[in-house]
Amino acid sequence: MNRLNPTSKSGVVLLAIVGAGLLLAGGSRVWVTGTVDDAVLGASRITGTGTQVASGVVALALAALAAAVASTTSGPVVRRVTLGLLLLAALGEAFFVARVLLDPSGVLGSVAATSTGRTGTIETRASVTAWPWLGLGAVVLLLSAGVGGWVGSRRWRGLGARYETPGSDTAGPRGQRVASDWDRLDAGEDPTDSDPTGSDPSDSHATDPTPSDPSDPTDNDPAVRDDRRRN
């Protein structure tokens, strides 16, 4: 069984799919739970989902996934740009997840204040669930995809190769490269046309300098016609 290569196209896309998928799934799950003792809310228990305590987690996950896919289907310059966007999205996710893990009471206090129509925060006693830790693992996967793509992208074959597999180039009689069907399609030619010059076989009579005479039976003799051309 082949091991996953994080610097290959498939490795980068797979890491991004798993990482972004975890963050997308966690957006609607409870990340923080706690209690609050407030004049308006009273002594009550409150929870905060991923999108409530880390508002950009879903948007950045989608951006990271799109960037990973685009990096594997683009040319060298665009590929570097999209891989850079993937890394930036992963760093943004790291910020949101770390903020929840380091200060769960603060992020939940903001959720509690919003629920009462106030700004700022309300003092709460909170703890995190397993989802922020899963989000941290997802961030590691996205960062791995970005770094792996940056390292291995120089060896990637882009779609500019027109879907050809390694070794699919055709060599001519002198070792020169012969245009493949994909190359001819790029040039606007029909690869099913056996005559790439586009000449019409029906016009071949125009090159015959000797007009045929239907009344002369020798006109049907190829040897006679060749002698006439030479003369």
Tell me what the structure shows:
- The protein is mainly alpha-helical and 231 residues long.
- The protein has a domain at 9-156.
- Helices cover 49% and strands 11% of the residues.
- The protein contains eight helices and five strands.
- The chain has helices spanning 9-26, 50-53, 57-71, 76-102, 104-115, 131-152, 181-186, 222-230, and strands at residues 30-38, 42-49, 124-128, 170-171, 177-178.
- The strands form two sheets. The protein has a three-stranded antiparallel sheet with strand order 2-1-3.
- Strand 4 (170-171) and strand 5 form a beta hairpin.
- Helix 1 runs antiparallel to helix 6.
- The radius of gyration is 34 Å and the shape is rod-shaped.
- The protein starts with 8 loop residues before the first helix and ends with a helix.
- Residues 160-169 have low confidence and may be disordered.
